[in-house]
Amino acid sequence: MKSLSRATDKAEILRRLSAVRPDSSRRWGRMSAHQMICHLNDSFLAVTGGKAVSIASGPFRRTVLKWVALYLPVPWPQDVPTMPEIDQTRGGTKPVEFASDLKQLQALVEVVTTQKGCFDGYQHPYFGPMSERAWMRWAYLHMDHHLRQFGS
Predict the structure, then answer these.
(1) If we measure between CA atoms, which residue out of 4, 6, 32 comes closest to residue 112?
(2) What does the alpha-carbon distance between residue 103 and residue 99 come to, in Å, rounded to a whole number?
(3) What is the pLDDT of residues 42-75, one digit of tens each?
(4) Torsion-angle region of residue 29: left (phi > 0), alpha (psi -120 to 50) or beta?
(5) What are the residues whose beta carbons fall under 8 Å from the beta carbon of 104, sequence distance 6 or more?
(6) What residue segments make up the domains of the chain, in order of their start?
(7) Full-prediction pTM beyond 0.70?
(8) Which class for 108: exposed (0-12), middle (13-18), buried (19 or more C-beta within 10 A)?
């Protein structure tokens, strides 16, 4: 299973990320490529304590949905609504300058993959508390989902 904890998977994600351009066309959804970069930034900040986000977890989401999302070998569904705090058309960070927003995302990927315990004490808005292994799996899958959204 791919995970940001594996160097080869991290390198793959960073390579694909570097192929995204401000004018990259989306295959689904409403976000622009730049909004997607900001959404990923906000997502990492939210799950590492850098951005407040509401919790919408429950027993089904913390068990069944988490297992399906993290371990069932199928792509994540398209057009699933996200939390308002990380939705760039609602309360998420507005895009400013593509290169600097992209650089911030690359730096956040570096932080979450090199600083052990950066997820400690934080919970996923839907899936609740997770192990370091599950966080790394989620991080890969979330980035993969949005990179596929822009053909990368």
Answers:
(1) 4
(2) 6
(3) 999 999 999 999 988 889 899 999 999 999 999 9
(4) left
(5) 41
(6) 7-17+36-149
(7) yes
(8) buried
